[in-house]
Amino acid sequence: MSKEMRIAKIIDTTSVVINAGEDDGIKKGDKFQIIGKKGVEVLDPETGDFLGTLDDLKATIIANTVYPHMTIAESEKHKIPGMGNPSTLASTALTQGMFNSIPKELLEPHYVHEDLNVDKTQITGSFKKSDKPIQVGDLVVKE
């Protein structure tokens, strides 16, 4: 890909829009690195040839929703382990009744997006969900 891609919009602390999409060869699941300033030049110790730069890596993002000219990308997900099986935990000093009040998502492993280190003054949000009722004739698009 020869196009220089950039962050076009910051949706929230886990999602951004990049200025390239399907027409640029991007597919859902593609990974990208957000690079800050160009880093230190690396030279071959024997020839002195320029080998590249060690750039400032800000984050890794993954294409989630790809449009023709833009892509919504999200931070990587990380697994959060659960507390475990309530029946196993019940053998401890805690009583089974206490486990009934613990939300299921705390007991089972789940995945959460890592927050990106974004300039929070540039967060603009995403699509606004309409509060208007669905009507005959409304446009429908395949996901």
UniProtKB/TrEMBL annotation:
InterPro entries: FlgT_C, FlgT_C_sf. Residues 15-78 form the Flagellar assembly protein T C-terminal domain. Gene3D superfamilies: FlgT, C-terminal domain. This is Flagellar assembly protein T C-terminal domain-containing protein.
